[in-house]
């Protein structure tokens, strides 16, 4: 057993409190910082005045929905990743790596292009279906054969399905140039310009999935001791696995419906949480939720500043032929770039062990 | 009884052991490829019967036919052919080195890196000649592979680590590509998008000559090292026991694979799954010995891409779809079957 910093109950509870604080700080920061300057006084006023000014409107209509979406999506992706890592006994498991995000994204793009689906409600269901189908395919492929689920097999299957779905998505976009500009940003994983309504559509599913995930934390911890042990202790492992998979589908599909395929959150955050509290899912899952929310909020703040007009990168780009389309980078790109070093470290370790 | 043909050229360290069966397959596949080539050149907005195509190719057809074929059809079909060969051989090398039937340049991030290079060139330096796009793609592919190799190094490179790290690096490459797409103006974006799906749409004679020259360098080089590839496939200790300098040849072979993949990506964008499928089909036909596998894989790859491109531009006419779409549609079921049957290998 590797030792981790938070071993006693007191420390773990304190850590949880610190996590909540971190989440609140990043949430406030996400509302306050950005292209439009906001003072503390304005920030407080925005939630109180009956007749908001322009800046206050920015806060209420743009910043707040965005921050809340980042929070929910980050928490959901992190929890989905943690569940997948337990289910597949594979430290590299996450919705992004295993092609679940790509499948959901393809489903949404195809529905928009071929069946002119436009309502957000419909997108959500389509995303769930896409997540479920690609998840099933990858799991089925990875578990085929006598050797069962080796990490390598599952990861390869996931990478191949990701390649497959993203080629199809690109194919759809090539034939349908009008939606390209609109969808491109979403496809890289973005939470810009989403209304609160898009979140409220998915929120019931999220809440149900969160509740179910927390309820599953004890059986999943048991399952981690090995399937035979869990069965010997009287657990109906089939049900636990099925319900966990259902949670993963709801969490990842919902996240894609709101924010597009955001990668690496589901990989990175569970590992940070595991480093802090170990592999006890009763503690790991709440930590994942808190840290996942904070992680995506932070990445989103970074996404605002990376190519902000007047910033160093924007100046650099001004010298080239590139005309910057927007003031921001989709947050999915930031998380991907942060996540890859993590992935590589874990890959190096898991192969040598 | 199997008859074998041995080709041994001592000064080149070349030694190929050929069965008759692979040679028959090679001839058969070449014939089919030739037929597809002629048909592919003939089909399009203006249909030219195969007889006239052959006449035009030998310089005897009507001037109109010759014009259409020379300026429009031929470069495209030739590019498809060359790209297919390069991708197939790149995949065959990787599968041998990594000893995993699922490895291919697109899965482990080589084409991803090449894409970053090319898209950077397309979006940041608009108006630059197409030869630089190919240089950028090659550089991107080489740099990425170097990075993967470096990161996978831990007292030598284990094939498993190479794959996993490659998948990770590929994720970063995808991120960078979308970043570049987003900071570029929309008309370059859709141009880059077509390219990213893998298309031989805009091939010119210039592309053909450049690609042909590059392929003509690296294919023979690969064939010359086929015996080292055979050794690699036996695994680390057996290969060492045979007297092969495992790490050195692993590096060289990976370099050839990168070069071939980069050449293909530069010419046509990342056409997926060809590097995965073609070597497998070839292995089913010829057995595992690389000396006979590589040529058959090359022809199979050429056939695959030509058929994919033919389908892509005729099936949904007047829409001219990227060939990569159809190789992906073929490749995914292929992969499923492969994974289901791969108990012994993976």
Automatic annotation (TrEMBL), chain A:
GO terms for cellular component: plasma membrane. The keyword Lipid biosynthesis does not apply. InterPro entries: ABC_BtuC-like, ABC_transptr_permease_BtuC. Keywords: Cell membrane, Membrane, Transmembrane, Transmembrane helix, Transport. One of its GO terms (biological process) is siderophore-iron import into cell. Its main location: membrane. It is found in: Cell membrane. GO terms for molecular function: transmembrane transporter activity. It is a multi-pass membrane protein. Pfam families: FecCD (PF01032). The chain crosses the membrane at residues 67-84, 96-116, 122-142, 154-175, 195-217, 238-264, 284-307, 328-347. Belongs to the binding-protein-dependent transport system permease family. FecCD subfamily. This is Iron complex transport system permease protein.
TrEMBL record, chain B:
SUPFAM superfamilies: ABC transporter involved in vitamin B12 uptake, BtuC. The keyword Membrane applies. GO terms for biological process: siderophore-iron import into cell. It comes from the Bacteria. One of its GO terms (molecular function) is transmembrane transporter activity. The chain crosses the membrane at residues 23-43, 77-98, 107-126, 132-151, 163-187, 251-273, 293-312, 319-340. The keyword Cell inner membrane does not apply. Keywords: Cell membrane, Membrane, Transmembrane, Transmembrane helix, Transport. Its main location: membrane. GO terms for cellular component: plasma membrane. It is a multi-pass membrane protein. It is found in: Cell membrane. Belongs to the binding-protein-dependent transport system permease family. FecCD subfamily. This is Iron complex transport system permease protein.
